[in-house]
Protein backbone atom coordinates (compact mmCIF):
# COMPACT_ATOMS: atom_id res chain seq x y z
CA UNK A 1 0.00 0.00 0.00
CA UNK A 2 1.35 3.42 -0.91
CA UNK A 3 2.17 6.00 1.74
CA UNK A 4 -0.64 8.24 0.51
CA UNK A 5 -3.19 5.42 0.61
CA UNK A 6 -2.04 4.35 4.07
CA UNK A 7 -2.40 7.92 5.31
CA UNK A 8 -5.95 8.26 3.95
CA UNK A 9 -6.90 4.98 5.64
CA UNK A 10 -5.48 5.78 9.06
CA UNK A 11 -7.66 4.11 11.75
CA UNK A 12 -8.59 7.45 13.29
CA UNK A 13 -10.29 8.36 10.02
CA UNK A 14 -12.67 5.40 9.99
CA UNK A 15 -12.77 3.69 13.40
CA UNK A 16 -14.56 6.56 15.23
CA UNK A 17 -16.99 7.31 12.40
CA UNK A 18 -17.63 3.62 11.70
CA UNK A 19 -18.60 2.72 15.25
CA UNK A 20 -20.55 5.93 15.75
CA UNK A 21 -22.62 5.09 12.66
CA UNK A 22 -23.25 1.56 13.90
CA UNK A 23 -24.39 2.81 17.30
CA UNK A 24 -26.58 5.58 15.88
CA UNK A 25 -28.63 3.16 13.78
CA UNK A 26 -28.81 0.52 16.51
CA UNK A 27 -29.96 2.96 19.19
CA UNK A 28 -32.50 4.64 16.92
CA UNK A 29 -34.06 1.29 16.00
CA UNK A 30 -34.03 -0.55 19.33
CA UNK A 31 -34.40 2.26 21.85
CA UNK A 32 -35.46 5.65 20.46
CA UNK A 33 -38.30 4.14 18.44
CA UNK A 34 -39.97 3.26 21.76
CA UNK A 35 -40.12 6.96 22.66
CA UNK A 36 -41.41 7.80 19.18
CA UNK A 37 -44.15 5.15 19.39
CA UNK A 38 -45.23 6.54 22.75
CA UNK A 39 -45.23 10.13 21.45
CA UNK A 40 -47.49 8.98 18.61
CA UNK A 41 -50.04 7.65 21.10
CA UNK A 42 -49.08 3.99 21.41
CA UNK A 43 -49.53 2.34 24.80
CA UNK A 44 -46.53 1.22 26.83
CA UNK A 45 -47.05 -2.47 26.09
CA UNK A 46 -47.00 -2.17 22.31
CA UNK A 47 -44.32 0.56 22.25
CA UNK A 48 -41.91 -1.55 24.32
CA UNK A 49 -42.74 -4.76 22.44
CA UNK A 50 -42.34 -3.35 18.93
CA UNK A 51 -39.00 -1.68 19.61
CA UNK A 52 -37.68 -4.71 21.53
CA UNK A 53 -38.48 -7.10 18.68
CA UNK A 54 -36.05 -5.13 16.52
CA UNK A 55 -33.24 -6.55 18.68
CA UNK A 56 -33.79 -10.00 17.15
CA UNK A 57 -31.59 -9.41 14.09
CA UNK A 58 -28.69 -8.31 16.28
CA UNK A 59 -29.22 -11.38 18.47
CA UNK A 60 -29.07 -13.96 15.66
CA UNK A 61 -26.40 -12.28 13.53
CA UNK A 62 -23.84 -15.07 14.24
CA UNK A 63 -26.10 -17.29 12.12
CA UNK A 64 -25.56 -15.28 8.95
CA UNK A 65 -22.08 -13.90 9.66
CA UNK A 66 -20.31 -16.70 7.69
CA UNK A 67 -22.38 -15.83 4.61
CA UNK A 68 -21.29 -12.19 4.77
CA UNK A 69 -17.69 -13.42 4.79
CA UNK A 70 -18.15 -15.28 1.50
CA UNK A 71 -18.84 -12.45 -0.94
CA UNK A 72 -17.02 -9.32 -2.08
CA UNK A 73 -15.21 -7.36 0.63
CA UNK A 74 -16.16 -6.38 4.16
CA UNK A 75 -16.02 -2.73 3.14
CA UNK A 76 -18.53 -3.41 0.36
CA UNK A 77 -21.05 -4.72 2.89
CA UNK A 78 -20.40 -1.80 5.25
CA UNK A 79 -21.08 0.75 2.52
CA UNK A 80 -24.15 -1.04 1.16
CA UNK A 81 -25.60 -1.47 4.65
CA UNK A 82 -25.04 2.18 5.59
CA UNK A 83 -26.65 3.44 2.40
CA UNK A 84 -29.63 1.11 2.87
CA UNK A 85 -30.05 2.09 6.55
CA UNK A 86 -29.88 5.78 5.61
CA UNK A 87 -32.45 5.34 2.85
CA UNK A 88 -34.54 3.26 5.25
CA UNK A 89 -34.80 6.10 7.77
CA UNK A 90 -35.66 8.51 4.96
CA UNK A 91 -38.26 6.02 3.74
CA UNK A 92 -39.75 5.79 7.23
CA UNK A 93 -40.02 9.59 7.31
CA UNK A 94 -41.83 9.56 3.97
CA UNK A 95 -44.09 6.69 5.04
CA UNK A 96 -45.27 8.70 8.06
CA UNK A 97 -47.07 11.04 5.66
CA UNK A 98 -49.24 8.20 4.33
CA UNK A 99 -52.53 6.84 5.72
CA UNK A 100 -52.07 3.86 8.04
CA UNK A 101 -48.31 4.51 7.99
CA UNK A 102 -47.58 2.17 10.89
CA UNK A 103 -48.29 -0.92 8.76
CA UNK A 104 -45.54 0.24 6.40
CA UNK A 105 -43.07 1.56 8.97
CA UNK A 106 -42.90 -1.51 11.22
CA UNK A 107 -41.87 -3.96 8.45
CA UNK A 108 -39.40 -1.35 7.19
CA UNK A 109 -37.80 -1.09 10.64
CA UNK A 110 -37.65 -4.90 10.76
CA UNK A 111 -35.75 -5.06 7.47
CA UNK A 112 -33.48 -2.21 8.56
CA UNK A 113 -32.54 -4.11 11.73
CA UNK A 114 -31.19 -7.00 9.64
CA UNK A 115 -29.30 -4.59 7.40
CA UNK A 116 -27.92 -2.88 10.51
CA UNK A 117 -26.81 -6.23 11.95
CA UNK A 118 -25.03 -6.95 8.68
CA UNK A 119 -23.28 -3.58 8.99
CA UNK A 120 -22.09 -4.60 12.45
CA UNK A 121 -20.70 -7.91 11.18
CA UNK A 122 -18.84 -6.26 8.31
CA UNK A 123 -17.58 -3.31 10.36
CA UNK A 124 -16.23 -5.60 13.06
CA UNK A 125 -14.58 -7.63 10.31
CA UNK A 126 -12.86 -4.56 8.87
CA UNK A 127 -11.60 -3.64 12.35
CA UNK A 128 -10.22 -7.08 13.15
CA UNK A 129 -8.67 -7.90 9.77
CA UNK A 130 -7.28 -4.45 8.92
CA UNK A 131 -5.50 -3.81 12.23
CA UNK A 132 -2.83 -5.96 13.81
CA UNK A 133 -3.07 -7.06 17.44
CA UNK A 134 -1.21 -4.02 18.74
CA UNK A 135 -3.37 -1.60 16.76
CA UNK A 136 -6.56 -3.35 17.87
CA UNK A 137 -5.57 -2.81 21.49
CA UNK A 138 -4.43 0.75 20.79
CA UNK A 139 -7.72 1.82 19.20
CA UNK A 140 -10.03 -0.24 21.42
CA UNK A 141 -10.70 2.75 23.66
CA UNK A 142 -11.39 4.97 20.65
CA UNK A 143 -13.79 2.39 19.28
CA UNK A 144 -15.65 2.04 22.58
CA UNK A 145 -15.90 5.79 23.11
CA UNK A 146 -17.10 6.33 19.54
CA UNK A 147 -19.76 3.69 19.97
CA UNK A 148 -21.08 5.35 23.12
CA UNK A 149 -21.33 8.71 21.38
CA UNK A 150 -24.03 7.14 19.20
CA UNK A 151 -26.52 6.63 22.06
CA UNK A 152 -25.72 10.08 23.44
CA UNK A 153 -26.65 11.63 20.10
CA UNK A 154 -29.68 9.39 19.50
CA UNK A 155 -31.18 9.12 23.00
CA UNK A 156 -30.00 12.54 24.10
CA UNK A 157 -29.67 15.16 21.37
CA UNK A 158 -32.21 13.81 18.87
CA UNK A 159 -34.88 13.10 21.49
CA UNK A 160 -34.29 16.63 22.78
CA UNK A 161 -34.65 18.06 19.27
CA UNK A 162 -37.89 16.14 18.71
CA UNK A 163 -39.29 17.74 21.84
CA UNK A 164 -38.16 21.21 20.80
CA UNK A 165 -39.76 20.80 17.37
CA UNK A 166 -43.00 19.67 18.99
CA UNK A 167 -42.94 22.58 21.44
CA UNK A 168 -42.32 24.89 18.50
CA UNK A 169 -45.59 23.94 16.87
CA UNK A 170 -44.96 20.71 14.95
CA UNK A 171 -47.06 17.63 15.53
CA UNK A 172 -45.23 14.62 16.92
CA UNK A 173 -45.39 12.98 13.51
CA UNK A 174 -43.82 15.99 11.80
CA UNK A 175 -41.14 16.26 14.49
CA UNK A 176 -40.11 12.62 14.14
CA UNK A 177 -40.11 12.86 10.36
CA UNK A 178 -37.46 15.57 10.69
CA UNK A 179 -35.44 13.37 13.06
CA UNK A 180 -35.55 10.42 10.66
CA UNK A 181 -34.47 12.58 7.73
CA UNK A 182 -31.53 13.82 9.84
CA UNK A 183 -30.47 10.29 10.79
CA UNK A 184 -30.87 9.08 7.22
CA UNK A 185 -28.79 11.95 5.87
CA UNK A 186 -26.02 11.47 8.45
CA UNK A 187 -25.84 7.73 7.73
CA UNK A 188 -25.56 8.22 3.96
CA UNK A 189 -22.89 10.88 4.46
CA UNK A 190 -20.96 8.43 6.64
CA UNK A 191 -21.15 5.87 3.82
CA UNK A 192 -19.68 8.39 1.39
CA UNK A 193 -16.91 9.18 3.88
CA UNK A 194 -16.13 5.51 4.49
CA UNK A 195 -16.00 4.85 0.74
CA UNK A 196 -12.95 7.10 0.74
CA UNK A 197 -11.16 6.30 3.99
CA UNK A 198 -12.11 2.76 5.08
CA UNK A 199 -9.83 -0.17 4.14
CA UNK A 200 -11.27 -3.17 2.34
CA UNK A 201 -10.75 -5.65 5.18
CA UNK A 202 -8.86 -8.91 4.69
CA UNK A 203 -10.50 -12.30 4.33
CA UNK A 204 -10.25 -14.55 7.37
CA UNK A 205 -8.20 -17.74 7.08
CA UNK A 206 -11.23 -20.00 7.57
CA UNK A 207 -13.55 -18.04 5.27
CA UNK A 208 -16.07 -20.47 3.73
CA UNK A 209 -16.23 -20.72 -0.05
CA UNK A 210 -19.79 -22.09 -0.28
CA UNK A 211 -23.04 -22.12 1.64
CA UNK A 212 -22.34 -25.72 2.58
CA UNK A 213 -18.95 -24.71 3.95
CA UNK A 214 -20.51 -21.85 5.89
CA UNK A 215 -23.08 -24.23 7.35
CA UNK A 216 -20.36 -26.69 8.32
CA UNK A 217 -18.34 -24.05 10.15
CA UNK A 218 -21.44 -22.78 11.94
CA UNK A 219 -22.46 -26.30 12.98
CA UNK A 220 -18.96 -27.09 14.26
CA UNK A 221 -18.96 -23.86 16.26
CA UNK A 222 -22.26 -24.90 17.88
CA UNK A 223 -20.99 -28.39 18.68
CA UNK A 224 -17.76 -27.14 20.25
CA UNK A 225 -19.67 -24.46 22.17
CA UNK A 226 -21.85 -27.02 23.94
CA UNK A 227 -18.81 -29.19 24.64
CA UNK A 228 -17.37 -26.53 26.94
CA UNK A 229 -17.12 -27.47 30.59
CA UNK A 230 -20.08 -26.14 32.65
CA UNK A 231 -21.48 -24.54 29.52
CA UNK A 232 -25.03 -24.40 30.89
CA UNK A 233 -23.89 -22.41 33.91
CA UNK A 234 -22.16 -19.97 31.55
CA UNK A 235 -25.29 -19.79 29.37
CA UNK A 236 -27.37 -19.02 32.46
CA UNK A 237 -24.96 -16.25 33.37
CA UNK A 238 -24.95 -14.79 29.85
CA UNK A 239 -28.74 -14.81 29.67
CA UNK A 240 -29.66 -13.73 33.21
CA UNK A 241 -26.97 -11.26 34.28
CA UNK A 242 -28.69 -8.25 32.66
CA UNK A 243 -32.32 -9.24 33.28
CA UNK A 244 -33.11 -6.12 35.29
CA UNK A 245 -31.56 -3.90 32.62
CA UNK A 246 -33.80 -5.44 29.98
CA UNK A 247 -36.83 -4.85 32.18
CA UNK A 248 -35.88 -1.19 32.69
CA UNK A 249 -34.50 -0.22 29.28
CA UNK A 250 -37.86 0.77 27.79
CA UNK A 251 -39.87 1.38 30.98
CA UNK A 252 -37.34 3.81 32.50
CA UNK A 253 -37.89 6.45 29.79
CA UNK A 254 -41.65 5.76 29.77
CA UNK A 255 -41.73 6.42 33.52
CA UNK A 256 -39.96 9.72 32.94
CA UNK A 257 -42.40 11.03 30.32
CA UNK A 258 -45.70 9.61 31.60
CA UNK A 259 -47.95 12.07 33.42
CA UNK A 260 -48.22 12.03 37.20
CA UNK A 261 -51.80 10.76 36.84
CA UNK A 262 -50.30 7.59 35.34
CA UNK A 263 -47.63 7.37 38.03
CA UNK A 264 -44.87 8.97 35.95
CA UNK A 265 -42.71 12.07 36.36
CA UNK A 266 -44.29 14.10 33.56
CA UNK A 267 -41.06 15.11 31.85
CA UNK A 268 -40.93 16.50 28.33
CA UNK A 269 -38.86 14.99 25.54
CA UNK A 270 -36.40 17.85 25.96
CA UNK A 271 -35.92 17.03 29.63
CA UNK A 272 -35.72 13.31 28.89
CA UNK A 273 -33.07 13.91 26.26
CA UNK A 274 -30.94 15.94 28.65
CA UNK A 275 -31.37 13.84 31.81
CA UNK A 276 -31.78 10.30 30.55
CA UNK A 277 -29.96 10.43 27.25
CA UNK A 278 -27.09 12.76 28.14
CA UNK A 279 -26.29 12.77 31.87
CA UNK A 280 -27.35 9.14 32.15
CA UNK A 281 -25.15 7.99 29.31
CA UNK A 282 -22.24 10.09 30.53
CA UNK A 283 -22.61 8.28 33.86
CA UNK A 284 -22.51 4.93 32.01
CA UNK A 285 -19.25 5.94 30.33
CA UNK A 286 -17.63 7.01 33.59
CA UNK A 287 -18.87 3.91 35.39
CA UNK A 288 -17.53 1.67 32.61
CA UNK A 289 -14.12 3.31 32.80
CA UNK A 290 -13.86 2.95 36.57
CA UNK A 291 -15.32 -0.56 36.48
CA UNK A 292 -12.67 -1.66 34.02
CA UNK A 293 -9.93 -0.26 36.27
CA UNK A 294 -11.50 -2.01 39.28
CA UNK A 295 -11.53 -5.39 37.51
CA UNK A 296 -8.01 -4.94 36.16
CA UNK A 297 -6.62 -4.31 39.63
CA UNK A 298 -8.46 -7.05 41.51
CA UNK A 299 -9.22 -9.74 38.93
CA UNK A 300 -12.68 -10.70 37.70
CA UNK A 301 -13.22 -13.80 39.82
CA UNK A 302 -12.84 -11.86 43.07
CA UNK A 303 -15.22 -9.05 42.11
CA UNK A 304 -17.83 -10.56 39.75
CA UNK A 305 -20.51 -10.79 42.46
CA UNK A 306 -19.77 -7.22 43.56
CA UNK A 307 -20.28 -6.13 39.95
CA UNK A 308 -23.61 -7.96 39.88
CA UNK A 309 -24.65 -6.00 42.96
CA UNK A 310 -23.62 -2.78 41.22
CA UNK A 311 -25.83 -3.60 38.24
CA UNK A 312 -28.91 -4.58 40.21
CA UNK A 313 -29.15 -2.91 43.62
CA UNK A 314 -29.12 0.75 42.38
CA UNK A 315 -32.33 -0.01 40.46
CA UNK A 316 -33.95 0.89 43.78
CA UNK A 317 -33.65 4.52 42.64
CA UNK A 318 -36.52 3.94 40.19
CA UNK A 319 -38.68 2.45 42.93
CA UNK A 320 -37.88 5.39 45.21
CA UNK A 321 -38.76 7.91 42.49
CA UNK A 322 -41.99 6.05 41.66
CA UNK A 323 -43.03 6.29 45.32
CA UNK A 324 -41.92 9.90 45.90
CA UNK A 325 -42.67 11.31 42.40
CA UNK A 326 -40.09 14.12 42.79
CA UNK A 327 -40.57 17.30 40.78
CA UNK A 328 -37.01 18.55 41.23
CA UNK A 329 -34.93 18.02 38.09
CA UNK A 330 -31.85 17.83 40.30
CA UNK A 331 -33.29 14.91 42.28
CA UNK A 332 -34.45 13.11 39.12
CA UNK A 333 -31.09 13.61 37.44
CA UNK A 334 -29.29 12.32 40.53
CA UNK A 335 -31.45 9.20 40.57
CA UNK A 336 -30.79 8.46 36.91
CA UNK A 337 -27.07 9.16 37.22
CA UNK A 338 -26.72 6.83 40.22
CA UNK A 339 -28.48 3.96 38.45
CA UNK A 340 -26.62 4.45 35.17
CA UNK A 341 -23.21 4.92 36.79
CA UNK A 342 -23.41 1.65 38.71
CA UNK A 343 -24.86 -0.13 35.68
CA UNK A 344 -21.81 0.95 33.66
CA UNK A 345 -19.51 0.00 36.53
CA UNK A 346 -20.95 -3.49 36.86
CA UNK A 347 -21.69 -4.30 33.22
CA UNK A 348 -17.99 -4.46 32.31
CA UNK A 349 -17.82 -7.68 34.31
CA UNK A 350 -20.29 -9.29 31.92
CA UNK A 351 -18.24 -8.55 28.80
CA UNK A 352 -14.94 -9.52 30.43
CA UNK A 353 -16.45 -12.81 31.62
CA UNK A 354 -17.56 -13.64 28.08
CA UNK A 355 -14.10 -12.85 26.72
CA UNK A 356 -12.11 -14.65 29.41
CA UNK A 357 -14.33 -17.64 30.27
CA UNK A 358 -16.98 -18.28 27.61
CA UNK A 359 -15.16 -17.41 24.38
CA UNK A 360 -11.73 -19.12 24.53
CA UNK A 361 -11.27 -22.02 22.14
CA UNK A 362 -11.29 -22.85 18.44
CA UNK A 363 -14.07 -20.40 17.58
CA UNK A 364 -13.40 -17.65 20.11
CA UNK A 365 -14.99 -14.86 18.07
CA UNK A 366 -18.11 -16.89 17.24
CA UNK A 367 -18.54 -18.11 20.80
CA UNK A 368 -18.18 -14.56 22.07
CA UNK A 369 -20.95 -13.61 19.64
CA UNK A 370 -23.08 -16.46 21.00
CA UNK A 371 -22.68 -14.99 24.48
CA UNK A 372 -23.66 -11.49 23.43
CA UNK A 373 -26.49 -13.04 21.41
CA UNK A 374 -27.84 -14.58 24.61
CA UNK A 375 -27.68 -11.15 26.20
CA UNK A 376 -29.56 -9.71 23.24
CA UNK A 377 -32.16 -12.46 23.53
CA UNK A 378 -32.67 -11.55 27.19
CA UNK A 379 -33.06 -7.88 26.28
CA UNK A 380 -35.59 -8.76 23.59
CA UNK A 381 -37.68 -11.08 25.76
CA UNK A 382 -37.72 -8.78 28.77
CA UNK A 383 -38.36 -5.74 26.57
CA UNK A 384 -41.31 -7.39 24.82
CA UNK A 385 -43.07 -8.23 28.10
CA UNK A 386 -41.98 -5.18 30.10
CA UNK A 387 -44.57 -2.74 28.78
CA UNK A 388 -47.47 -5.13 29.25
CA UNK A 389 -46.35 -5.99 32.79
CA UNK A 390 -45.99 -2.34 33.70
CA UNK A 391 -49.47 -1.51 32.44
CA UNK A 392 -50.93 -4.34 34.54
CA UNK A 393 -48.96 -3.50 37.70
CA UNK A 394 -48.44 0.24 37.67
CA UNK A 395 -45.01 1.76 38.10
CA UNK A 396 -44.48 1.18 41.83
CA UNK A 397 -45.42 -2.51 41.72
CA UNK A 398 -43.50 -2.99 38.49
CA UNK A 399 -40.29 -1.60 39.98
CA UNK A 400 -40.77 -3.91 42.98
CA UNK A 401 -41.11 -6.77 40.49
CA UNK A 402 -37.85 -5.68 38.81
CA UNK A 403 -36.02 -5.92 42.12
CA UNK A 404 -37.41 -9.43 42.73
CA UNK A 405 -36.43 -10.38 39.18
CA UNK A 406 -32.78 -9.69 40.04
CA UNK A 407 -32.60 -12.85 42.19
CA UNK A 408 -31.82 -15.17 39.22
CA UNK A 409 -29.05 -12.75 38.22
CA UNK A 410 -27.42 -13.09 41.63
CA UNK A 411 -27.71 -16.88 41.55
CA UNK A 412 -26.28 -17.16 38.02
CA UNK A 413 -23.37 -14.92 38.99
CA UNK A 414 -22.66 -16.79 42.24
CA UNK A 415 -22.42 -20.12 40.39
CA UNK A 416 -20.67 -18.79 37.26
CA UNK A 417 -17.68 -21.09 36.62
CA UNK A 418 -14.09 -19.95 36.11
CA UNK A 419 -12.05 -22.45 34.12
CA UNK A 420 -9.70 -20.05 32.33
CA UNK A 421 -6.90 -17.89 33.70
CA UNK A 422 -8.14 -14.88 35.60
CA UNK A 423 -5.25 -12.45 35.74
CA UNK A 424 -4.45 -8.89 34.85
CA UNK A 425 -4.03 -9.57 31.12
CA UNK A 426 -6.35 -7.67 28.79
CA UNK A 427 -9.16 -9.47 27.00
CA UNK A 428 -8.13 -11.25 23.77
CA UNK A 429 -7.60 -8.62 21.10
CA UNK A 430 -8.80 -10.91 18.32
CA UNK A 431 -12.37 -10.73 19.56
CA UNK A 432 -14.35 -8.23 17.53
CA UNK A 433 -16.46 -5.65 19.34
CA UNK A 434 -20.11 -6.60 19.16
CA UNK A 435 -22.78 -3.97 18.62
CA UNK A 436 -25.50 -5.66 20.58
CA UNK A 437 -23.24 -5.88 23.62
CA UNK A 438 -22.71 -2.21 24.13
CA UNK A 439 -24.66 -0.30 26.74
CA UNK A 440 -27.75 1.44 25.49
CA UNK A 441 -29.61 3.91 27.62
TrEMBL record:
UniProt name for this protein: MFS transporter
**Which species expresses this protein natively?**
Massilia norwichensis
Q: Give the way it sits in the membrane.
A: Multi-pass membrane protein
Question: InterPro entries given for it?
Answer: AmpG_permease/AT-1, MFS, MFS_dom, MFS_trans_sf
Q: Which domain of life is it from?
A: Bacteria
Ranges where the Major facilitator superfamily (MFS) profile domain occurs: 11-420
**Membrane spanning stretches:** 12-35, 47-64, 76-98, 104-123, 144-163, 175-193, 235-256, 276-296, 303-325, 331-355, 367-389, 395-416
Where does this one sit in the cell? Membrane
Question: Where is the major localization of this protein?
Answer: membrane
Alphabetic keyword roster: Membrane, Transmembrane, Transmembrane helix, Transport
Respond yes or no to whether keyword Ribosomal protein is given for this record.
no
* Pfam families named in the record: MFS_1
